[in-house]
Structures are given as C-alpha cells and as structure tokens.
Specification:
heterodimer; A: 341 residues; 5-stranded mixed sheet; 14 helices; globular; B: two-stranded antiparallel sheet
C-alpha cells in the first residue's frame, strides 16, 4: 500500500470532501440506498457468488446497516475497491461506509481521517503448511530452515522477518508481487509454508489443488483487527454504524436469531424488550435517528453476528474458520457488545 | 533602400539579423534550450512543492534506515537489520549477476544456433530455424514463466530429488552442488593458473614470430590448454591436495550444506539467454552471409582448409557486422532482467519495489532505478565499442 499516494489523495480529496455532505444519514435516505465499499474478491469477506450477488462477512455488515436505516437489508449497492484506492473512495464520498477487511491502525484513524466503528473480525498473520508433505509440523516454531512464500510490499513481509529473527530461526523468503503468483508457487511446492492474514490463509487454501492437505498453524504473529470505517466529522452516522455492530453482538448474546426474532418480541425480559424496541416509550432507536424496531430489522435482514460469521467464514462455509478470538466474551472470545439501554 | 551604391569587391552587404541564417539558427537553438530548461525546472519545482504540501519527507536519508525485510539470495552479507541502501546494493548485484551470466550464455547459444542455420546438414538447419522462430516470436515474460512454472516447478520435491553425479541434486528448490572448500596452501593453485595464462600468451607470441620467420606452424591452441590446465594441477599436487567438499545433506525441509542455485535465478537465466540467443543467432547468420562469397574462393585458392579459412578469413570480417547489433541485444537482455519480479527473483526492480512500498519514497527509488540501469547499459556500450574498435578494419 503506497502511503505517499494515499496521503496525496487524501490531501486532494480533503478539499473535495466538502462535496460529501456532513450528514451522511440524510444523504443515504435521500438516495434510497447505502453505498458500501468492499474487497474486489476475498472468499468469506466479500466476493460475488455464481449468481453475481455479493456475499461475505464484510458484505453482510453493510446489509445490516442498510436494514437499520431502511428496514430493508437489500437497499445497498457495493463498490469493489483495491487496497490502494479504498481510503480515497471513502474520503471523497464515493462510498458511505468502508467495509473491506481493513486493519485498524493509528495512522489510518488519524492521518487518513477515518473513524473505525469496531472490530468485526480479529485477525492476525499466520502460517499454512502442507500436512501431506510435512506431517510432523504442528507449530510455526518448527519452521526453521523452511522456504516461505509471501507477498511483497506488505506489513506481512516485515512481520515475517521480525518473527523469525526474534525466535532465532533461519528461513528462505520467496517474495512475489501478486497474490496469484505466491499462491501458484506455494501450490507447486516451491515453498514449505505460506504466510498472510489467517483469514486470507483459509481463503487461499480453497484455491489449492488439494485444499484438505493444507493446515493453518496455530501461531498468530501480528495483530490485524479488521473493521468497518466511516469518514471523520459525522458523529451521527458514526454512531449508527458503531451501534449496528453492537446490536449484532448483543442479539447473539441474547440468543435472538433470524428465525426467532418475531416470537422474541413477546418476551417478558425487560432487557430484551428494550433491545427489540418493544418497551413502551422507548427512545433508543429515535435517538439514533432510526426507527425503534431497528434491531429487529437488522436481525430479520441478516441474522445476529454469530449467524453472519458461521454462514460466511465458519462451519456453514467452505472456509471452516473456528470462532477463536471472534467468539463472544461470554465464551472466551473478544467480541463484546456495549449495552443497549 | 531605393538607391544603392555598388559595393567594392570583397565586401558582403550587411543583412539584417532577422534574415541572417546563422543568427536565426542560433536564436532558435537558444529558444529550444531555454524552453527545455524551463519545462524541466517547472516539473521539478511542481514536484517539490506538492511533496512539501503533503508533508512527505524527501531526500535519500531513508536509505540509512533499517530495511526490516529479508531477501532470497544475496552476493553480499545481508539480513533484515541491514539498511535500505544495502538492500539496493544487493538488488544491483543480483541484476548484474543475471545480466552477465545471461550475456555469456546467450552469446554461446546464439553463435551455435546462428552457425547451425548455415549448416550443410538439413536437420541441423531446420532445427535451428525452428528454435529461432519459436523464441523470437514469444514475449520474454512468457518465456520466463514457461521455465519457472512449466519446467522447474515440475521437478520432484526435496525428498525425491534427482541425484546427479558428484553428489549434486536437482529438485524444485533448485540445483544443489557440493561447495569446494580450499584449505592450506591453495594459493599455489591460483598461482599455477596465473602462470599458465602468462606462459600461454608468451607461447602464442613466440609461435607467431616463428611463423613469420620460417613459415612453420606450432600447435598454440593445444599448448595453451595444457598449460592452463596443467600448471594449476601441478600447484595442487605441490600443495598436497588442499581441497575438501561440503556436500549437500538432507535436512527437515531442505538440503543443507553445499551451494544452492535457486530456481528463480535458473529460470530467469535460462529464459533470458534462450530468448536473446534467438536474436543473436540471426545477427550471426547475417554477419557470416554478409562476407562476400569471393572470400571463400580466395582462401581456398590460397590452400587454406575450411576450418582455417573460417577462423582467419570469414569470422574476422563477419565480426565487424555482428558487433554493433550485438551490443543492442546485450542491452535488451540487461533491461529484460527486470521482469524477474514476476517470479520472485530479487533483482533491483523487485527489491526497489518493496522499498518503495515500505517507505513511500517513490521519486527517489525511481531515480535510483534510472541511474543503475543507465550505468549498466553505458558500461556495456563502452566495453562493446572498445571491442568494436579492436575488431575494426585497420587502415594503414
């Protein structure tokens, strides 16, 4: 990712950002749909399926926001963005929300004028090996002397060098410019291991000639918290996106699913009644600038966080990623929804 | 000027500056130079101003920073703690390595194929033609990918390596060779080699002088070979065989020990040399065919054998036609080596790209690219021009 270009773009577009009005919610309502920036194609996060519909965790998050705003999860249009132009697209108002497996860093939060609404996926850099060829390898610490395929110009390349240096291990870096070149070389057996973000490893594994032969090793050597972001300077819109994320977590915690959300409305539990907006004189939804049944709409549209996760990257998907750090805090994970009251 | 005095002879009439061709040409040349300078200054100034406005650090100070990434192969010691500057040097050396070896290989293959196209033998002639037409009409990037993904990737993995003589191994991690380790007294071997070369030169001089004097010939070629091979061997024996080999052993992932020629380097070298050799073959053929037929008849009439005639009459004349276009092919090969980035060979372009991404110093890195490729090309040109001067017809 070329920082210079981004900063330059940001500077130019900072002037144009005036064109993107300060009240995103009104703009989105006037347009009648939400414009969402996603990845051009990363299995499980955002990729078009065989019918040409966008699917994935990042995609469903945008649908959840659309459901909260319009009460209809289909009122959203997607803009596929490359790593290089993603921030420019958000700053210039081309998209209303950036939901493109983007790592939350201080530089992006400050210098690039973004606000991160939360962490929809806790990721980190990991390693994958071919268990058929290397049956004895169960840990990245056994990789001393291995040849490792990696993409050039990424933080991945630097993390890799640091990790092996810190653990006093030798390795042979085989560095490729493109994702596809690195994948092909690893599949051909040029390298013993492949390294990138763990979610990426699971996606790459699907493209191998024998996906079941490859195992992702448990070590995570860097922090890559991925989450949706919006432009700075519009707190109302920032709140909506942020609380959409918390609503997805809170409904999972409360056991509210796409299937049972209607019958849950008649519950006696005051906590859940408040969450679902059925308590008398509740103002939670209207304070946000939405309707009081905003949480019901979200869950009806896309399900709760757990359902989104399992459908796109978990057990219900080809990626088969374990919840791990993305489990709820009640189940030993890091996902913690702030209380809706 | 209605009335005009007739001018005395020897005096030209003074024309107004406007119509003086010399003044006009000087004026226009100055104008063009001024416009060029202004244009260049405007571009530079604009760049500096924009960089300043977007708070981007400029200058080459970043080259002293810690690189933080590792490199596949390096001719000099390098680790992720080295500076960006050192990483650039590693890239330059890797580019130079593949360019120099590629030029040598391409020249040898090119000359063989070029002479093959003129062979009397139908099969050799047709094979050489097919080779030239095949490689000349495929983009070099495809040739590189063909060697990398189509040939070397299909080799067996480390465990099932092809064992070659002298405990070498060939597998999809490259070519493993025993590494010679020179012990005590090895300088004798080197000294023998130097002496062998020096003696050969003296023998050649003496033989030429003798031939001029008496007309008798002396087998210079074989004597030189004997000297260059024999003298180091003698040194080797005198020093008491000071040579051991570090032999590749199978480790967990890989063969350890010995030396390893990486598949990235091999594919790039093979691709560049095979691709460029096709063009060199055509240049060689043109050079040989450019020597008039009468020269062949002339050396036959003198009673020279065809091998002597080729060596003493045809090739020296053909070289004058061959060398200038050969220089262009060498330059092409050097510049095509930047395609290495597609297969992960860490040449200057690949390493520079990584540095550009990590530091954002786009302008500085591109300036370095330009300077290095320009220097390499100019060095090649200078050498070839010197060689051309040596081969040129000496008019006395």
């Amino acid at each position: 990712m070329n920082k210079a270009k981004v900063i330059l773009g940001a500077a130019v577009l900072g002037l144009m950002a005036g064109a993107a009005s300060a009240d995103t919610l009104d703009d989105v309502k006037a347009k009648g749909f939400l414009q969402c920036g996603v990845n051009t194609g990363l299995a499980g996060f955002s990729s078009p399926n065989d019918k040409g519909e966008w699917t994935g965790l990042d995609v469903d998050f945008c649908r959840a926001v659309a459901a909260a705003v319009f009460g209809d999860a289909t009122k959203v249009k997607f803009t596929p963005l490359s790593a290089k132009d993603r921030f420019t697209a958000l700053q210039s108002g081309e998209v209303d929300i950036l939901s493109r497996n983007t790592t939350w860093t201080i530089n992006r939060d400050t210098a690039l004028g973004l606000n991160f609404a939360g962490v929809t996926y806790y990721d980190g850099q990991g390693f994958m090996v071919n268990s058929k060829k290397l049956p004895g390898i169960t840990s990245a610490l056994q990789l001393s002397g291995a040849a490792i395929c990696v993409q050039s110009g990424t933080t991945t390349e630097l993390n890799l060098a640091d990790y092996f240096k810190a653990n006093k291990m030798e390795y042979t870096p085989v560095v490729f410019e493109k994702f596809e070149e690195a994948n092909a070389a690893y599949d051909a057996g040029r390298c013993d291991a492949y390294t990138t973000d763990q979610s990426g490893l699971y996606a790459v594994r699907l493209q191998m000639s024998a996906p079941d032969d490859h195992v992702v090793l448990p070590e995570i050597i860097s922090k890559e918290p991925l989450g949706p972001s919006v432009r700075q300077g519009d707190d109302k819109w920032f709140d909506i996106v942020k609380w959409t994320y918390f609503a997805l977590l809170n409904t999972e915690e409360a056991g509210i699913t796409q299937a049972n959300v209607e019958e849950m409305k008649s519950t006696e539990n005051p906590d859940l009644r408040r969450l679902l907006g059925v308590e008398a004189d509740t103002k939670i939804g209207t304070d946000l600038g939405l309707t009081n049944d905003w949480v019901v709409n979200i869950v009806k549209g896309v399900g709760n966080y757990g359902e989104i996760f399992e459908r796109n990257v978990g057990t219900g998907s080809p990626l088969k990623i374990a919840r791990g750090a993305n489990a709820l805090w009640t189940k030993g994970g890091l996902q913690y929804g702030m209380p809706i009251r | 000027m209605a009335t005009q005095d007739v001018l005395p002879a020897g005096r030209t009439e003074k024309v107004s500056l406007l119509y003086d061709p010399r003044a006009r040409s000087i004026f226009f040349q100055l104008l063009i130079v001024a416009l060029l300078v202004l244009g260049g200054w405007w571009i530079v100034d604009n760049t500096i101003e924009n960089l300043r406005r977007s708070n981007i650090q400029t200058g080459f100070a970043f080259l002293r920073g810690r690189a933080g990434f590792d490199i596949l192969t390096s001719l000099i010691p390098y680790s992720s703690d080295s500076t960006f500057g050192r990483a650039i040097v590693v890239g330059v050396l890797n580019t130079a390595l593949v360019a120099v070896t590629g030029i040598i290989a391409a020249t040898i293959i090119g000359f063989l194929v070029g002479i093959g196209r003129l062979s009397q033998n139908w099969l050799i002639r047709k094979l050489a033609t097919v080779y030239v037409e095949l490689f000349r009409n495929i983009p070099p990037l495809l040739v590189i990918l063909f060697w990398y993904q189509g040939v070397l990737a299909l080799l067996p993995n480390v465990r099932d390596s092809y064992s070659l003589p002298f405990s070498s191994y060939l597998n999809n991690r490259g070519f493993y060779l025993p590494m010679p380790i020179w012990g005590e007294g090895s300088w004798l071997v080197l000294a023998g080699l130097v002496l062998g070369v020096v003696f050969s030169w003296f023998v050649a001089r003496w033989a030429r002088a003798r031939q001029m004097e008496t007309g008798q010939q002396f087998p210079v070629m074989w004597t030189s070979v004997a000297l260059v091979v024999g003298m180091p061997l003698l040194g080797f024996v005198l020093a008491g065989f000071p040579l051991t080999f570090d032999i590749p052993q199978k480790g967990t992932f890989n063969l350890t020990g010995g030396t390893n020629i990486k598949p990235e380097f091999l594919s790039l070298l093979l691709a560049l040399s095979f691709y460029t050799a096709a063009f060199i073959a055509e240049i060689v053929r043109a050079g040989i065919m450019g020597v008039p037929r009468g020269q062949t008849e002339a050396y036959s009439a003198l009673g020279l054998r065809s091998s002597q005639g080729l060596r003493l009459v045809i090739i020296p004349q053909a070289m004058r036609i061959i060398i200038p276009p050969l220089t262009s092919q060498y330059l092409n090969l050097t510049k095509n080596s930047s395609l290495a980035v597609a297969i992960g060979y860490p040449d200057l372009y690949a390493i520079g790209g990584t540095i550009l991404n990590q530091t954002g110093q786009a302008i500085e890195v591109v300036v370095i690219f330009m300077c290095v490729y320009l220097s390499l090309s100019i060095l090649t040109s200078l050498f070839m021009n010197w060689f051309n001067g040596k081969m040129a017809l000496k008019e006395r």
